[in-house]
Amino acid sequence: MARMKFYCDAERCIECNACVTACKNEHEVPWGVNRRRVVTIKDGEPGERSLSVACMHCSDAPCAAVCPVDCFYTTDDGVVLHNKDICIGCGYCFYACPFGAPQFPENGAFASRGKMDKCTFCAGGPEEPGSAEEFKKYGRNRLAEGKLPLCAEMCSTKALLAGDANVIADIYRARVVRRAASAMQKGVPFQRATLAPQPDLGGKASASE
Amino acid sequence: MQASTILSWTIGLLLVLLLAGAAPATAAPPPAADVPNPGADLWRAVRQRDDTLWPARTQAPRPDDAVLIDPAGEHFRQFRRERFIRYAGWGLAGTLGLIFLYFVLHGPIRHEGGDSGERILRFRRLDRILHWVLAVTFLVLGLTGLLLLFGRLLLIPWLGNAAFGPVAEIGKWAHNLTGPLFIVALLLFFLRFVGRNLPALADLKWLARLGGLLGKTHPPAGFFNAGEKIWFWLLVLGGVAVGISGVVLDFPALVDAARQPLRLALVVHGIAAVLLLAASLGHMYLGSIGMKGALQSMISGYVDANWARAHHLLWYEKLRGRR
Questions:
Q1: Is A88 in contact with B165 (Cβ distance < 8 A)?
Q2: A68–B168: do the CB atoms touch at under 8 Å?
Q3: Residues paired with A4 in a beta bridge
Q4: Predicted pLDDT of residue B315
Q5: pLDDT bracket for residue A16 (50, 70, 90)
Q6: Per-domain residue ranges of chain B
Q7: Edge-to-edge strands of the sheet including A49-53?
């Protein structure tokens, strides 16, 4: 079975926030909740990098571990989902998540937060797939229609990748190799770059020797 | 010297010369490449939240949102699942076990001569009301807190997830609403009883004899003996700890709903609460079946004169002396 994961390529992310907007629009996420967010490091300085982060759908999810009512479950595809009918809005999952994925729509007195909401990998929830009830609570279920998450589909530079972990890893590995090859071949375009020995390098692996 | 010795020494010397001769032949290792890897620096900064060197910005509104990876979340998870639930569970069970053992071996504490029939007023109506309001809020908070701590482990196998959710939600609401009531009750209780719980010399002597467990006679005590005073101060200090952390947890806006302060509050809250619960088990035991006459004192307010003379001699004498 596929193991679904996200990967955001920091070299390509241009902080356009299309992923944030796409997700928020598609799932009609409540006010104040941003299932996905883009964080920029070294903003305005050389070496600026941006990353898009939402739920990472951990194999050993800390949110699921600390939940006092055990409302989380992992699908066969490795997507971590939860049941809003059981959720009591205690906030422990928010405390435990290293990525800050769980969010709450309310900020009331006596710790009334409402039900936890987070990225579902566009896989809905425990309700009937594609039903109105599911859309109201969890948003669109794209995985049931055989589609991938909208944030990755919408990414303007294909920085955000979503899908089977092996496929994602392969795509990213190819990018890393081609980038290095492109640099070594003095800026040959990405698509044509290769680490295979070239005639003009005289058989040497690196032009810097 | 023997031939074998000469032989072994020669071979050894040859080996040494060989190795020494071989050393200059291998080139000195080339200097390590001193090119910093920007990728490694980036990910280290992401993980360590190095806000000064590598400030992070985001358009998302929460104060924590600029943090990409917060490792302290995992500490919280490990604390709760691997340590707190385990130690709290065994600690509370162990305390119950010790109390049970004491009850079986020693039985209820009785006073010499039994009841005389003469009754003395010990707790006025205000004292009793304050005590019971505090006790009820404490019990509600303790039980609902235990529900949230152990429910997943002990109740979900019985009720199932779907049924336990609403139970836990009611528990959470009861807990969060009763919390401030407990704080007010504790404050009033403190003001009313602090005067009778100040340390005195008699307390040292009482403690030295462990309240009468050591030695033959019952050591004298004032209105409250040292054991009761210790429980009072434990309750007050523990109550302050659960109270302050509870207020932070009940009103996260006070800390901008940031993760680290709320985590810290929850950890303090849990530890103080479990310690209070364990101590309260002892108090509840003594106040009910553990000592004859104790529960009556808090229900009717009256105690028997023999009871007073046996357990709180200094208070009894002061009462008699005034008459």
A1: yes
A2: yes
A3: A164
A4: 94
A5: very high
A6: 130-197, 202-323
A7: A49-53, A37-41, B56-58
B237-248 per-residue burial string, b: 16 or more CB within 10 A, e: under 16: ebbebbbebbeb
Secondary-structure class of domain B202-323 per CATH: mainly alpha
ipTM: 0.88
How far away is chain B from the Cα of A86, in angstroms, using its nearest Cα? 5
Contact B122, B303 (CB under 8 A): yes
Predicted pLDDT of residue B39: 75
- In this prediction, residue A193 carries a pLDDT of 84
CB pairs under 8 A between A and B: 138
d(C-alpha A148, C-alpha A155), whole Å: 12
Distances, alpha carbon B15 to alpha carbons B4, B6, B8, B11, B133, in Å: 16, 14, 11, 6, 89
pTM for the structure as a whole: 0.86
Interface touch A110/B161, C-beta < 8 Å: no
| B276 touches B242 (CB < 8 A) | yes
Query: Chain A residues with CB inside 8 Å of B38's CB?
Result: 47
Q: How far is A136 from chain B (nearest CA, A)?
A: 20
Residue A204 binned pLDDT confidence (cut-offs 50, 70, 90): low
**CA gap A106, A112 in Å, rounded:** 7
Beta strands in B231-310 (DSSP E): 302-304
For residue B179, pLDDT over 90 is answered with: yes
CATH code 3.40.50.300 for A4-164: no
CA A82-A87-A92 angle, to 5 degrees, is: 90
What are the residue ranges of CATH 3.30.70.20 in chain A? 4-164
